[in-house]
Amino acid sequence: MTRPYLLFLYVLVSCLAVTCVRDYPSNAPYAPPVVNPPSGGLPGQQQPSAQKRLFLGNDKIRVGIDLNMGGAITYLAESGSSENMVNNPDLGRQIQTAIYGGPYPYTQNGKQPVEQWKYLGWNPVQAGDYFLHPARIVSYQQTDNQLYVKTVPLIWPLFDEPAECTFEHWIDIKDNTVHVRCRVVVNRSDTAHYDARTQETPCVYLNGPYDHMFTYTGLKPFTNDAVSEFTDRNVINRYATENWAALLNEKGRGVGLFKAREVRFRTAGFGQPHVGGEFDVSAGYINSEDFLVVDHNGEYEFEYTLIVGTLTDIRQFVYNQPRPPSGPDYVFVKDRQKWFYINTHDQGWPVQTELNVQWARDNVGNRDFRIAAPLTFWYAADVPKIYIQAAFKTQGTVARLSWRKAEEIDFMETPGRYIDFPIVGDGQFRTYEINTGQLSGWDGVISQISLTSPASQYNFEKGSTVRIRSVTSTKL
């Protein structure tokens, strides 16, 4: 079997860097690069380690993690079937966690990244690195009901280089579902601020037959409206308004990925369509890819569910979960609530009771700054008012609330997409009430909101800050 090398696809979406996708182009030969070989050894990759799997099972499904692949999920099958659906030709596939941050390129201990991956930046991968070195297991535990594993991931483009962070995963099964909770703890020596990146939290790679890609991208979620199947095998972002995506085979069976409140998913197909096994390059891919500011000392948690079965099974599970909120409900008590920054930054981790953000541009010039909420789905009619609890410290007198519609790929600073509202810059907390229901352009579906300063206020930037306690659709 020819071992795959991996093609990095780096896409700018909404003027921000996004995650990579690992693929092997079928028309290219495998040629491992000569990068940082161990002293006295040979360059390039090595054979994967032997499997060391731990399993959970019931009368519906069987799931397994591999301690020689960083504790990533490397096995998922329906009960009674010997067919493993998870794709495992290298250490960049599997069902696993991968985190992305700056700088670009990233070096550590004198090691340089593989050329085609050098713009990944700081990229801890749960299973291991490009050279097939497995990540380190710190501890693990198996009970009748749960698998637990703590991992020191490896930096994907570097030769056998542990990342300055740990991943913890708790895995449970119930009926035809696998529930995963993950905790990421970062302890980097580099204390610089870097832009938010989209993450693989998680990525899901299934074998070639499971490359029929489905989700719901319409504007009537949770109404049993028709879903969409995607045949374009390129790496494409989907506005998944029911918080799930799925990979199925030609018989209509496979795996769905559900992540509460998340509407940003990716789909792709690699290699030859509809064929291939566990160690072949052909694969289907889905990913939940929320934006995240990765602090040098940050701690982050997320959870997701894998649903095994038909499209009906997957959607029924999703419909049985609590509905996402119908408007903004962000209260910054202990984290950023997935808010992130463009061309500015906050005071870093930990976040306690408020966001404390520089109300100015990191890089002065034509580039604006923005404090952005995560991508979402609201009907404008359900959000007639927005309340912002904030303390501005600035000589400026105006702030701007901007919004995006579902069909727009970025914020548009045009009439009908923003409102400038008066602020008091004395550093004291106030509740700013914005009557969105009376605004031109606040209609249909709202997919994202943000706060920024109009260009007319840029001469007041020096030393300006804003502290934000909440952004909600009801007054607190």
Automatic annotation (TrEMBL):
Q: What PROSITE patterns does the database record attribute to this sequence?
A: PROKAR_LIPOPROTEIN
Which named protein is this? Uncharacterized protein
Which species is this UniProt entry from?
Spirosoma flavum
